[in-house]
């Protein structure tokens, strides 16, 4: 009896994690879908699709834990659009964000860790609100049920090597502090034909988020009147790259 129970619990856990959670395994560029974890660092959850909860973990940098196979670095032009496939589907309420980090002196996209104040947010997709007051139901999030996500490399981004970090934050039960779920991955890119943009402001992982900030300790099911437009601003990290 107890072994049957264990099996049932194990199966339930398996289905919960793989059916309702997600990864970002394939890079998309110029009509090509690259194989799993090619140009993308293989993430800590590539088999079980688990969410990351711990905002103090260095895993938050690129969603890797320890070693991963060398993914290589893809050459793209500034202004190109790149995408990530979603392993599973994005089935939770929450914003989709993209961050970028430039390789420093004597670093490459392959050698840099993503540690330190090196990250700049380049995009954040919020819910589409047509009625006020509004509950932030699943369908109001533009990436609900998405099987791929896309980002334009800013045309003004300077030439160089970069990590491009995709992040989806699930907020469906974030009314309990700590019950935010983080999913993401980093692509390694060599950006050519760049511009004269200035990256700012910088943040770090861990460090960018606090579990009690208004954007992460939030009931997305209640009736928002006006403050919903600012609930994802609270990390203090806003856009973007300034055109010089
Ligand atoms: C990360 O890897 C270490 C060492 O293998 C392991 O102890 C730890 O549980 C892993 N963390 C997660 C979140 O899987
Ligand atoms: C962010 O991404 C969204 C969705 O792809 C797009 O509509 C928007 O223009 C982007 N914003 C910036 C500042 O690039
Ligand atoms: C998600 O998308 C798939 C494929 O387009 C579709 O078959 C499915 O019905 C969608 N699910 C929901 C809940 O919208
Ligand atoms: Cu979940």
From TrEMBL:
GO process terms (BP): cellulose catabolic process
Domain Auxiliary Activity family 9 catalytic: 21-222
Record keywords: Carbohydrate metabolism, Cellulose degradation, Copper, Disulfide bond, Metal-binding, Monooxygenase, Oxidoreductase, Polysaccharide degradation, Secreted, Signal
Membrane-spanning segments: none
Signal peptide extent: 1-20
EC number, UniProt record: 1.14.99.56
Domain of life: Eukaryota
Record's subcellular location: Secreted
GO molecular function: metal ion binding; monooxygenase activity
GO cellular component, one term: extracellular region
Coiled coil spans: none
EC category name: oxidoreductase
Cofactor: Cu(2+)
Family according to the record: Belongs to the polysaccharide monooxygenase AA9 family.
Protein name: lytic cellulose monooxygenase (C4-dehydrogenating)
Native source organism of the sequence: Arthrobotrys flagrans
């Amino acid at each position: 009896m107890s072994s049957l129970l264990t099996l049932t619990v194990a199966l339930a856990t398996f289905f919960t994690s793989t059916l309702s959670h997600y990864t970002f395994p394939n890079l998309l560029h110029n009509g090509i879908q690259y194989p799993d974890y090619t140009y993308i660092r293989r993430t800590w959850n590539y088999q079980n699709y688990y969410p990351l909860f711990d905002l103090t973990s260095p895993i938050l940098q690129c969603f890797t834990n320890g070693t991963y196979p060398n993914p290589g670095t893809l050459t793209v032009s500034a202004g190109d659009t790149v995408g990530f496939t979603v392993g599973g589907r994005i089935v939770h309420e929450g914003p989709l964000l993209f961050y970028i980090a430039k390789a420093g002196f004597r670093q490459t996209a392959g050698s840099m860790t993503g540690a330190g104040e090196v990250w700049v947010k380049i995009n954040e997709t919020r819910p589409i609100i047509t009625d006020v007051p509004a509950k932030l139901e699943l369908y109001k999030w533009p990436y609900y049920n998405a099987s791929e996500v896309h980002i334009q490399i800013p045309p003004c981004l300077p030439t160089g090597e970069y990590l491009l970090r995709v992040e989806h934050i699930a907020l469906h039960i974030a009314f309990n502090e700590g019950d935010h779920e983080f999913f993401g991955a980093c692509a390694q890119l060599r950006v050519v034909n760049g511009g004269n943009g200035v990256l700012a402001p910088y943040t770090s992982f861990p460090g960018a988020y606090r579990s009690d900030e208004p954007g992460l300790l939030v009931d997305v099911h209640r009736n928002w009147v006006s403050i919903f437009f600012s609930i994802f601003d609270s990390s203090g990290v806003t856009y973007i790259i300034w055109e010089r």
